[in-house]
Design goal:
Blueprint (H helix, E strand, L loop, with lengths): L1 H9 L2 H33 L1 H37 L3 H28 L1 H6 L5 H16 L2 H15 L4 H23 L9 H25 L15 H32 L4 H37 L3 H28 L1 H6 L5 H15 L2 H16 L3 H27 L1 H4 L1 H47 L1
Helix pairs in contact: 2-3, 2-8, 2-11, 3-4, 3-6, 3-7, 3-10, 3-11, 4-6, 4-7, 6-9, 7-9, 8-9, 10-16, 11-12, 11-14, 11-15, 12-14, 12-15, 15-16, 15-18, 16-18
Length: 468
């Protein structure tokens, strides 16, 4: 038990980052693959069905925002408390995380039951698209408890340095989804043909099985923190400490939903196919960007632990190692999208119009990915330090001040082909904000520690002189 905690402060950093990240990267890649497989199968139903999934994506991002944002707050707080050797506070934070996610699942269930159709109607007045999208998103919302509660467990385990069980949980969900997708969508093996609703049922079934697995692990295993909801007592200070990181992260993730909704409204003025292309890009991008998210999932507790332990050298080295790996992953992804755009689009049974629009879109938008790798790492660093508001400021600038206004302007000036350049412009400008900010902030932290050490040394020297 002690060894698991101490490795974040003792194992060689490169080895530590890889050992902590590889399980998360594997699970994220599988997660991305099943998102792509889901869309590939849906595209076989028809382009309207693929467009419906694209229209549903911003609404799904609301769940992702709550899940990932709160997960960041939980992981950051637990890892910092363990770095300070305060196991009791870490345990209490973990219990709060579970209760928070249970509350989320209830709220989203009610939204899915009563407001799904109204939410979808904001994006289109096409009756067929409204029905298809509502059919898909209502299932995802009503049965979201599997996603929420399993993530509470995964965030807790990751904060303690256990990346294997979260990886297994995500693999269970992803494999279940991949297997059930064709069976439920097309009515194979004697099952009824459910179409787009079948894709949603496959998704939530996988999430529920992940939740069951995490529940078994948390109940039967021995961990750095223990879950005991029977004796749970809400604590305002713990909630505040979680949401100092979680709330900015939730808002930051939610901005993605607003941004994509805005882009869909811009693109649908050209054609519904342009909306489908954006959806396909985000599916393909996920196979590149999800490994980076897996990488930073492993990196965050390392940075948080060593920040709590005030270990400057390990903080700096882990940041450098993570940025290099993230950048390399994104460069490879950019190369693939630029070399094989038509082949990638053909996976989604793309029409000639979709291929024509999509080839230019994939090539242009993917150019922003290497710089995004650095931005993601810097943003997660602020979250690990308990300063999620800075990540929020940078994300708000990127999505609301840069991407959407530039997309609107470029659409007016140059048409559809120019819209995609907004992504590149936004990454360059947002990096000019978050990069210098992180360097200055880390400098202040390290300088403060240096002053503390100097003050302690002076005190020790004075005590030694008096004793002598």
């Amino acid at each position: 038990m002690t060894r698991k905690t101490n490795k974040m402060g003792t194992m060689p950093v490169r080895q530590l980052v890889l050992s902590m990240s590889i399980p998360a990267i594997i699970s994220m890649v599988i997660q991305a693959l099943y998102n792509i497989v889901d869309s590939i199968y849906v595209s076989r139903i028809g382009e309207d069905a693929l467009t419906a999934v694209s229209l549903a994506f911003p609404l799904q991002l609301l769940i992702i925002a709550l899940v990932m944002g709160t997960g960041s707050g939980i992981t950051s707080l637990i890892s910092r408390r363990l770095g300070e050797h305060d196991r009791e506070s870490a345990t209490r934070a973990a219990n709060h995380g579970f209760v928070i996610n249970m509350a989320y699942s209830l709220i989203i269930l009610l939204f899915g039951l009563f407001f799904a159709k109204q939410a979808v109607s904001v994006f289109t007045d096409d009756a067929n698209l409204i029905d298809l999208t509502t059919s898909y998103i209502s299932v995802v919302f009503v049965f979201s408890f599997g996603r929420f509660i399993s993530q509470a467990g995964m965030s807790t385990l990751q904060a303690t340095g256990d990346m294997i069980h979260p990886m297994k949980a995500m693999l269970i969900g992803a494999v279940t989804n991949i297997v059930l997708d064709p069976i439920l969508i097309f009515g194979l093996l004697g099952m009824p043909e459910l179409g787009i609703r079948g894709a949603a049922i496959a998704t939530v079934t996988g999430q529920i099985l992940s939740f069951v697995y995490i529940g078994i692990v948390m109940r039967n295993g021995k961990h750095e923190v223990e879950i005991d909801l029977k004796h749970f007592k809400p604590n305002a200070r713990i909630l505040k400490d979680i949401y100092v990181v979680a709330l900015p992260a939730i808002i930051m993730q939610s901005l993605g939903s607003v941004m994509i909704s805005g882009l869909n409204l811009i693109l649908i003025t050209f054609s519904s196919t342009a909306v489908a292309v954006l959806g396909v890009y985000y599916k393909l991008q996920s196979i590149v960007i999800m490994p980076v998210f897996g990488l930073v999932q492993g990196y965050m507790p390392i940075m948080g632990f060593n920040y709590g332990a005030k270990n400057k050298d390990r903080m700096v080295e882990s940041l450098k190692v993570t940025v290099r790996f993230a950048f390399l992953i994104m460069v490879l992804g950019t190369a693939v999208m630029n070399i094989f755009p038509s082949q990638l689009l053909s996976l989604f049974d793309a029409s000639s119009e979709m291929v024509e629009i999509g080839m230019g879109a994939l090539k242009r938008m993917s150019l922003c990915l290497p710089m995004a790798a650095v931005g993601i790492t810097f943003s997660i660093t602020f979250q690990a330090l308990g300063k999620g508001h800075i990540s929020l400021i940078a994300s708000f600038a990127r999505q609301m001040i840069f991407i959407l206004p530039f997309a609107w302007l470029l659409a007016r000036l140059g048409g559809l082909d120019y819209v995609w350049y907004a992504f590149i412009i936004a990454e360059v400008l947002s990096m000019m904000i978050i990069g210098p900010w992180l360097m200055v902030d880390l400098g202040k932290i390290f300088k403060g520690w240096e002053h503390e050490n100097n003050a302690k040394n002076e005190k020790f020297n004075e005590e030694d002189a008096v004793t002598y």
